[in-house]
Amino acid sequence: MTTNPVPEEQLLTKIDDKGLPFFPAPRPRAHSHATLGLLTDTIIWALGAAVVVFWFAGGAWADLTRSVPMALQALGALVGLFAAFLLLMQILLMARVPFIERGLGRDVIVAVHRKLGFRVFWLVLAHVLIVSVGYSFAVPRFAINRNPLVQFTHILSDFPGADLAFLGTLVLFGAVILMSLPSIRKKFRYEIWLHWHLLAYVGVLLVLPHQLWSGGSFITSRPARIFWWTLWGVVLLSAVVFRLIRPLWNWHKHQLRIVSAEPDGTRGVAVQMSGRNLNQLHARAGQFFIWRFLDGEPGWWQGHPFSLSMPPTDDKYQICVRVVGDGTERIKKLKPGTRVIAEGPYGRVNGDLRTGNNLLMFAAGAGLGPMLSILGEQSWGPGEATLVTRDSSEEEAMMTDQIQALVDQRGLKWERLIGKSPKNGSRWHPAVDDKGTGLDGSEIIQKWVNEMPTKGTDNSAGTDVFMCGPPPWMDGVKTDMAKAGIPHEQIHIEEFAF
Fold it and tell me: Does residue 342 contact residue 250 with C-beta atoms inside 8 Å?
């Protein structure tokens, strides 16, 4: 059991007469903000429709019916416009806009961002090919040469901003496409990948002049110019405000500092922080921040995504970190008083997603933090919540004091899974003998669900499942969840892969 020398009045949770943390009163049940996701989808689709409308309004219909070369040029322009539009949507999705983060969730945003990156690149190539072919078959005064490749070289030299757009495309290819390939991405640490990936913004700025100077929508239509200028302005301003200005403002306003950084298990660190009026950040248990610890050591400028590991209060935050490399090794050495920049909160997985009375929580490694914070924040009675923790060894287990407090104070059921992965059966459950024999995880899940109290409905329909841990481990749990008959809409998960 970890001892903490920090005075009790500075701790996030008080200590009861048994020497265990005492959690604050549970938060009342609330409704999920699912409408934010629908609103985000609606806005994006509406903007995409506006791109087509302005393309038609610029005379595209007449070009489509005039001749094959003109039709190719019009289609090439539309493909280029959609490439620019999807590029802007990529930036907007990653701009940390609060209502988008809460509406879609970080895992969905990252997945969509990755897919759009590849689509943008292929659309840019299609734009170049279609336009080059279109001009090579145009009337003689426009067709420099019938060879599309030769025509393309003339487009680069004759069209304003085309050379910059080509250079920007190469930057986007190197910064986004190559670094997003799984075979390349997995060879780099997150911090290196992230800062190389930020070169994409350079590519975007290089592409912009071509659209402003050569785009038909800008040249012929004032409403289209207003639409595109406004879209570019809103997106780029959002990135600056929410990725740079807002974190710096919150850093100055809330004065977040380290209270303690204490070992938790053999590979974990529990970090407590204090600040002013933290309730104004509206953080929820289960959400995460991008943390920067200003200790002056090498790598202080690198951001690390960690979830809150205890319910946030008006003046205290806590995270629990698994030490896995150089970036997290520094956290063990943080001194009290160290200033902290917290970018967030982010993530949509919190207690407002609940639809039933029972809670079944799965946590592996550092994924325990958000699961435990949700349990501490939410209201539930004895026997209505089960926490399943997975560790390779008992020595690596983190936050055991806090878990035991919920067991003693509120009747949490704690299922500890400790040991090596099996050679057969469900991989998320440890082997039951030295031969590596595994169990049927779906039967175990069904047993846990059946043991929970029912309140006017069957247990599976009244149970919400939350989970956090390594993606392969969660995939195994999800597979057995489906076999156990747990409805998909009652499984709440948010992955943090990059």
Answer: yes
472/478 Cα distance (integer angstroms): 10
Report the pLDDT value the prediction gives residue 300, as an integer from 0 to 100: 80
Q: CB-based contacts of 443: which residues, under 8 Å, 6+ apart? A: 484
Q: DSSP string covering 188-215, please?
A: S-HHHHHHHHTTHHHHHHHHHHHHHHH-
Q: How far is residue 64's CA from residue 80's CA, in Å, rounded to a whole number?
A: 16
The larger pLDDT score, comparing residue 118 to residue 219, is at: 118
Task: Express as a percent the part of the chain with pLDDT over 90.
Answer: 27
CATH code of 480's domain: 3.40.50.80
Please indicate, yes or no, whether residues 26 and 38 belong to a single structural domain of this protein.
no
> Residue 158 is part of which domain span?
34-244
Residue 22 belongs to a domain? yes
Pair 363, 301 in one domain: no
pLDDT-derived band at 22, boundaries 50, 70, 90: low
pLDDT in tens, 122-134: 888 888 788 777 7
Do 58 and 204 lie in one domain? The reply is: yes
360 is a domain residue: yes
Place of tokens 């999800």: 478
184 shares its domain with 272:
no
Q: Give the three-state DSSP class for 398.
A: coil
Q: How far is 324 from 3, CA to CA, in rounded Å?
A: 23
Query: How far apart, in whole angstroms, are the C-alpha atoms of residue 451 and residue 283?
Result: 32
Domain boundary among 217, 244, 271: 244
Highest average pLDDT, of 31-45, 87-101, 204-218, 268-282, comes from 268-282
Of all helices (H) and strands (E), which one includes residue 294?
strand 288-294
Of 426, 496, 405, nearest to 23 (Cα)?
405
Residues 74 and 145 both lie in one domain: yes
pLDDT higher than 80, residue 137: no
- Please give the share of the chain, as a percent, with pLDDT higher than 70: 76
Q: What is the pTM of this model?
A: 0.78
Q: How far is CA 12 from the centre of its chain?
A: 26
In a domain, 1, yes or no: no
Tell me, yes or no, whether 71 lies in a domain. Answer: yes
Please give the structure tokens belonging to residue 445. 């899940």
- Tell whether omega for the bond before 471 is within 30 degrees of 0, i.e. cis: no
Per-residue b/e over 282-311, b at no fewer than 16 CB within 10 Å? ebbbbbbbbbbbebeeeeeebbbbbbbbbb
* 248 CB-contact burial (10 Å; exposed 0-12 / middle 13-18 / buried 19+): exposed
pLDDT at 466 over 90: yes
pLDDT band at residue 143 under the 50/70/90 scheme: very low
